[in-house]
Amino acid sequence: MICGSVYMTCAIGTTTLSFVLPAAECDFTLDSANKGEINATPLVGMIFGSYVWGSMADTQGRKKVLVISLTMDFIAGLLSSLAPNFITFLICRFFNGFGIIGATSVCFPYLSEFLAFKHRDLNLCRLEIFWVLGVCAVPGLAWLLIPLKFTWTPYPELTFRSWRLFVFFCGVPSLIIGLTLHFCFHETPKFLLSQGHHDEALAVLRKVFVFNKRRDPSEYCVRRLAAETHNLQLNEDGSPMHFPHEHKGEKASLGRRIVLRLEVLWDQNVALFSGPLAKYTLLACFIDFGIMSSYYTLMLWFPELLERFHSYNNLHGGDAQVSGVCDVMGVVLDPGANNCTSPEHVHGPDNDVYLHTLIIGLSCLPTSFMLGYLVRKIGTRIMLMLFMTTSGIAILCLHLIHNEMQNLVLSCVFEALASVAEATLFCAVVHIFPTHLRALAVSLTVTCGRIGAVLGNILLGVLLDLSCEVPITTFGVLLVGGSSKVGF
Asked: Domain spanning 2-189+274-486 has what CATH number?
């Protein structure tokens, strides 16, 4: 449950901006390119953060990274809700992305290292259910808060509207879950053992036994743990050896500790990009790039795109026919009907936009519940290929839609399949990579995915009003093309 709560919090933190774009348009005087920059900035933070957190998790511990990153996300959310201008808001959202990606990428290794191999796939896939719940919670919370018509001006440069309250409340779960992790949960026994803390690892396993079985600690019969001998070299006493630089800096100066930290990071990267692991590292990075360039971009832009579709229908009548989604996306919102003097526009999108976004989120629940079963019965590789191919075709079919309902159906199909693709990829990654490289491998995969998401958001923001056929086609081709690489 705690890992599910972490992952749900990550979904909330990641998708918050999807409803801020139409609501904050007037306060920050946003055009489509500015909106692309807002969506891309947290993803840039994720690119920098994921690599840092992954290396830190492999040397300092999974739990420590989860607590610190969630706390950072809350602080960034609080500050961004008070940001007086566009630039300040971008800076705050950068640190939001920097923080939340630590929890997103380390959540899977943290949970996997408490699970037996036979239960790992099923339970890791179940995390996707919590992601979907988080995605569904965002439009629900936005629908509750953003339409509130109030303003508060603590100083001339800042007008506090309902969308700022929404941004603040989206950060609160990170603080709650971070504190819960800090005070109530333990480091993973696998990580402790990999660091040579045998007795601490055994104590954690004993507590897990007591909690699961409701029995006395003295009944736990395990007295000695074996290290992963296929992943780590052992000392003569059976304890695992470490990277040569790992413990030299414990009492060194700050500068020396930074140098040693970089040396450890270099050793980890050499291990990932050499030998038999290099193929899997590059493949995972390429696949996540294709998934996230389309999924994150469209997920963050869905409310904006739905708002444009709604405005198009208002301008041309509810039964207006189009010859593809780009007919609608090229329409700039009518400045006479939706300008910043209109109270409805100042306080966010139309109610139908919240409803349709919620429907798109709920469409992910069936695939999320079925994911664990499908992966166990059919296999990770086949399911990943199926998810990527079908979601890519759904994107390409957006060129063929004729009305808002067809757009909604295809959006649901895309979201339902693309949302589980990355979780399926993570299941494969935690299987392939050893304990002492696992968190960094996931983080490196996530980094490449967020690079794709940054480029996707910038591409869509720049071309949305000019030639939206280019990004839509690119996203579809990347997914279909990436699925062909899964078989290698």
From this structure: 1.20.1250.20
